[in-house]
TrEMBL record:
Family of this protein: Belongs to the group II decarboxylase family.
Record GO biological process: carboxylic acid metabolic process
Protein source organism: Paraburkholderia franconis
Record-given protein name: Uncharacterized protein
Co-factor(s): pyridoxal 5'-phosphate
GO molecular function annotation: carboxy-lyase activity; pyridoxal phosphate binding
């Protein structure tokens, strides 16, 4: 192999919430002088929750992370981040120069050297405001609540005839199968008509259920169970 080695590990698979063994991957990558990036769009925030933090063991060894708040913390779509250990490597990769751009003074942080855009809105304010209101404990409680609801929903669904949960539930996602693939496709239309803004995806005849709305509680979880298992969902 020639050229630099770049390894991408996943902290929270988009459909199942599964984690790569980041700790071991980091050791192997750095033994070969490689760069380890962790795609943490779904699962990186597990580190904020004591009950789930172990799932992301080893992410501190990575060279860069990419968490996304809108997937786990119900922030606006554009709230996403990149954390890079080597600040100079980050700057060199993203720096933009043109004759009409005025150079910043030495030592002054210039945002154009760290992001793709030259112009953008004040995205960080939304993150700061909501995270400040919730605090560390509030974020941890929300993540743990969503994970508990996913566990409860998946357990109740497995008790229903003809409904199968296809993955081990680690975070707030699970994939369900309703009988044959044909019956699953028919059910999708029915579910869409009674769902409260779900994240729903067909996966080889299954449906992926993501529990992650700030207003989602045990009452709504019961509603979803009734809809899944054959009852009518009015909300």
């Amino acid at each position: 192999m020639t050229g630099p080695l770049l390894v991408v590990a996943q902290a929270g698979q988009i459909n199942t919430g599964a984690f790569d063994p980041v700790d071991a991957i980091a050791d192997i990558t750095h033994e070969r002088q490689g760069w380890l990036h962790v795609d943490g769009a779904v699962g990186l925030w597990a580190r904020a929750c004591p009950a789930k933090a172990h799932l992301a063991n080893g992410i501190e060894k990575a060279d860069s992370w990419a968490p996304v708040e809108h997937k786990r913390l119900q922030r606006p779509y554009y709230t996403r981040y990149a954390f890079v250990r080597n600040a100079e490597a980050h700057r060199q990769a993203m720096r933009i120069e043109a004759s009409y751009l005025t150079a910043s003074e030495q030592g002054v942080h210039d945002p154009r050297n760290y992001v793709p855009e030259l112009s953008r809105c004040v995205r960080g304010f939304v993150t700061w405001a909501i995270n400040s209101a919730l605090g560390r404990q509030g974020i941890a409680d929300m993540i743990e609540c969503h994970c508990q609801l996913a566990q409860a929903m998946s357990q109740r669904l497995t008790e229903e005839p003809g409904i199968y949960v296809l993955n081990e539930v680690e975070l707030n996602q699970f994939v369900v199968q309703f009988g044959s693939p044909t019956s699953s496709e028919a059910f999708e239309g029915r579910y869409q008509s009674c769902s409260d803004r779900p994240c729903l995806l067909c996966v080889r005849g299954g449906l992926e259920r993501l529990v992650g709305n700030a207003r989602f509680n045990h009452f709504l979880a019961d509603d979803k169970h009734r809809c899944f298992s054959g009852g009518r969902c009015d909300r």
